[in-house]
Amino acid sequence: MYIIPSLLCLNGRCIESAAEEPRVLCIVQDTTSSKTVNERLTLNLPASTTVNKLYEDVAHKAGYVNGTFCLGCSNTTDSEMSLVLSGFEAGKKNFLQLTDKDGEQPQIASVTDSSGLDDSSQDRFIGPLPRDGTVGCSSDYSSPSYSYSSILNKSDTGYVGLVNQAMTCYLNSLLQTLFMTPEFRNALYKWEFEDSEEDPVNSIPYQLQRLFVLLQTSKKRAIETTDVTRSFGWDSSEAWQQHDVQELCRVMFDALEQKWKQTEQADLINQLYQGKLKDYVRCLECGYESWRIDTYLDIPLVIRPFGASQAFGSVEEALQAFIQPETLDGPNQYFCERCKKKCDARKGLRFLHFPYLLTLQLKRFDFDYTTMHRIKLNDRMTFPEELDMSPFIDVEDEKSPQTESCTDSGAENEGSCHSDQMSNDFSTDDALDEGICLDNTSSTERVLKPKSSLTFELFSVMVHSGSAAGGHYYACIKSFSDSQWYSFNDQHVSKITQDDIRKTYGGSSGSRGYYSSAFASSTNAYMLMYRLKDPSRNAKFLEVGDFPEHIKRLMQREKESEEQEKRQREIERNTCKIKLFGMHPVKMMMVENKLEVHKDKTLREATEMAYKLMDLEGVVPLDCCRLVKYDEFHEYLERSYEGEEDMPMGLLLGGVKSSYMFDLLLEIRRPDQVFQPYKPGEVMVKVHVVDLKSESIAAPVSVRAYLNQTITEFKQLIAQATGLCAETMRVILERCYNDLRLLSVPNKTLKAEGFFRSNKVFVESSDSTDHQAVFTDSVLWKLLDRHGNTIRLFVSLPEQSPGSLANRTSCPKASQQQQSSSTSDSQKSSEHSDFEHIESPAQEPDAASQPSQTENCTRAASDTENQFPSEERSDSDVNNDRSTSSVDSDILSSSHSSDTLCNADSGPLPLANGLDSHSITSSRRSKAHEGKKEKWDTTEEDSGTDSEYDENGKIKADSQYLYFKAEPYSQEDGSGEGQKCLLVHVDKRITLAAFKQNLEPFVGVPSTQFKVFRVYANNQEFESVRLNETLSSFSDDNKITIRLGRALKKGEYRVKVYQLLVNDPEPCKFLLDTVFAKGMTVRQSKEELLPQLKDQCKLDLSIDRFRLRKKTWKNPGTVFLDYHVYEEDINISSNWEVFLEVLEEPERMKSMSQLAVLTRRWCPAQMKLEAFREVVLESSSVEELKEKLSELSGIPLENLEFAKGRGTFPCDISVLEIHQDLDWNPKVSTLNVWPLYICDDGAVIFYRDSTEELIELSEEERNELMKKESSRLLKTGHRISYSPRKEKALKIYLDGGPTKDPGQD
């Protein structure tokens, strides 16, 4: 699962850290033209990029108008969704196809169109050159924003293409071939759909009929195939599955036969495409022949015989090899019924009848047994334009005196040729594989004698370009109307020549031996279609005037629908679509919408549309609303449109564009107000008034100014808006974060001072002496500096504290003493504010009303009655639903804690603080702790010393007087009880060490005895451990959880310990949190674990009867030996996890050269798995493994078979699948090679007795066992099947969609 990185907020927008954010590599193939189909556009985009932004970037790079093309990239309808959430994979190549939209070619962006481009980009044009004509010629429709070319209409070939839904090129190639077959098209037109019999959406013949009518009569360049695939019962996911075109042909023909039952077309497929052949075996001693007749729809031709180094050179050679008989001799002898013994025999195939339309499949996909991968054979194989099939026909009688006939099996096998020379595509269970979910039915037997002329004419070549892993199909088809060859490549139809056909033979120049196909062209013919040359049968296409009446009515409906779509597209082209914002007066929040308005609508009409869109009817009067030009990013009102209410929106917005560089804001006024005019060139300034007496900063007042105004004029403008005195006014510009600039030069212009569209200034006007001080030393600067760096945090406190800090902490010294002591501290810098008792301007009371620090200390020591009971969870709760005490075990452990708490055993103690409003500018440790030089560190690395103390034992935080203010607030949980929480305002430049010290009075224990966890959006908690780092990575409203427990010292790591229970239903059980240190041996860590295990987990163990081992998610790994040293022999990190395994006998693992595997016996006769047992091997030898298993189980060595478990421990698998699905008895001699790769401890090995037969179950027993296994595996969270992912079967559903078997997974 991909986890979105943390987000940074900038001007209200969330952006990801560029340094950490993964990127999505998009490779776009432009398939909209034959001239660009070989071009690739590459974009490397951040993972957070929206789908809408992807379209914009592709449009810019390809030179198209956005919105006029489609990308086969996402099924989501939300264009604002990020690429990752839309299914793109970060860090991998994502291949996309740029295709036509609504059957029309993308509109090429005009070179003169400046929409969406800045000045620097208007002088260059990026993208492909204009195709088939010049953009913007006199015959084209043009507008200020678009240029339309006549190429958008039907191709000049007169043929219409098909839109590729995503990976449906194989479907498009077959559909175009069928469309260009006169006999098939004419027969389809003669069939009439009956509305009363079936839903037209689910009728495959009707949707094919509609498609063919559109292909013949449409004016579009390409049309969609979604209606056809919907009639197949396919959903959108099927568009992303590429299948074999020959497989589709068979499945579609079977579906049509089922749909055409009881109609005139019932036998159409057989009449056109079905042939017959004889499968025979002849005894070479007596001449007796046994045979059967099979039917076929296509002939599969082998490219290269198995084991041969040379491929067949032509289709004729492959056909000859297809009927070449093989001799059955030796161990393959045939049992002759006449001789009553095994004899040598000849087995083969003979063609009895060729179909009218002959289909040849060139079997280019094979399996390489060396690499164990599918491969594609790209060898050269020629095929003639006219193919004479007479040499391959069987001229003998179908029966002879020495033969015995078998029943004709053609109907039973659904057109499959059953021969050992043929591939598994033609097995007896093809009816199941082909995907027709109905029982097979027999067809009428027909005896067809060979014709006198068997010359076939080539008319379709279906070409595959790519590898066995995937590729692209297109069709080269000859029109029987003009004998011209055309290329049908999805949307593109173009004329081609015989030379182009010859290029599909495949192969390369010269011979490279067996591996020649690896270096050959990957574009070659895959399926050929021939038509018998018979003038008496050869048909011509029906012309429009000769269409049956029902086709004419269908054509009229489609024509009207197409005209309606065209009108709608024309409206879309003239519609301005722009973002609309508005502050809703009731919801009191900024609302965003999309305003779609025709370019000829006036501003007044558009305002009324926006008024209704914002749902303001009955809330405010229409005349109190107006539309203004708005920049949402800078929150800047660019201009208003006074006197232009009757201006068309197309002119106001600069034309119809795919995107605009600005937005619109629906501004609302009160009835007693008057709209302020906004003129172009003005800048917006948000003015915050600062009151030094109350130390407050007021909410902003908006003021508009001009960049050429001077500072003096600007002060007068502010004085009018705020009522302040301009003479004593100080104006401070915040140009960017924490960059404060005093505007002190009267005649300097705003532009020279760095003002932009939207600006933020602070003003102060008083008669105090503060204005005489240097700005960076003034009270004003310190107040603004604190204001700019203060963040608000929500801190959740622990349920109880084991001791009261009031019993050990003395009151901090007075602020004057703090300041005097800080003057000698070298770490005090001018950027750090020593301004004390500054409260938040809007929420905090006056400083005079604040209690002194001495009072706060007194209250902290005495006010112990205020307790905040609530439920607390341990820091292991992120991964476990196990509630524990908030007090970690290590806080009570004397082995690591130098501050043992005296009150740890006295039960729950109150917090040491009343949690009233408390302002701390510098918290000191108690005098009892001042002299300590305890070094403690939480960094994960050895470098650096994140110690809370300096070399003299003095607290480092004493040198920094950064703002800290905490006050209690109650957060209601579901139970009605409030969680103890603090609302903390703190300067984010404070270090984590100082932050923890400031929290001491509220937590009730020293900062060394509690931990700080940062809570992220998904409620995951991560401990903040680097004490010398500041809170600069935190932002407003971040959540923090405080948990009791000793903080880590330098070189220590917090470790989660889980118990490994190999034979339990849940083998991974959380035990406790502990601490391991660098340099500690495994045995030392076990010694320290013993008392913790006894106290917290009630496990009373001997040190030699348990082991620690590596934990990778739920998988057990390397066994750690007692002498191993952490960080030297064992890599350890923060929040590390480790398994503890209880041993039934003394440890057998003594050396790293040994290998510990977990074995489990499978008993097929009982249909059960025995318990896990560990086997320790001295080497990685398979022979040793078998010997150990034989000793363990008593199975003879020669009968023992084993297999490696799959998936996550415990590698659960259904007992119904284990016997067949695992790779039993791999042919390897060592365990550390493919396919086992067992190189570490913890691997799961299943073993069995090969002589033990699998028990036979009745159907009822099998169903009952299946339910039990499904329930068991679902409870353990494991998949029911671990079989390798299989290619999705190609199915066409005759009932409109798949029905899921409840018993299936």
TrEMBL record:
Residues 160-533 form the USP domain. GO terms for biological process: protein deubiquitination. It comes from the Eukaryota. Residues 939-950 have a biased composition (Acidic residues). Residues 815-827, 883-899 have a biased composition (Low complexity). Residues 828-839, 870-880, 928-938 have a biased composition (Basic and acidic residues). Residues 393-423, 801-952 are annotated as: Disordered. One of its GO terms (cellular component) is nucleus. CDD domains: peptidase_C19C (cd02659). One of its GO terms (molecular function) is cysteine-type deubiquitinase activity. Residues 402-423, 801-814, 849-869 have a biased composition (Polar residues). This is Ubiquitin carboxyl-terminal hydrolase 47. The lineage of its organism: Eukaryota, Metazoa, Chordata, Craniata, Vertebrata.
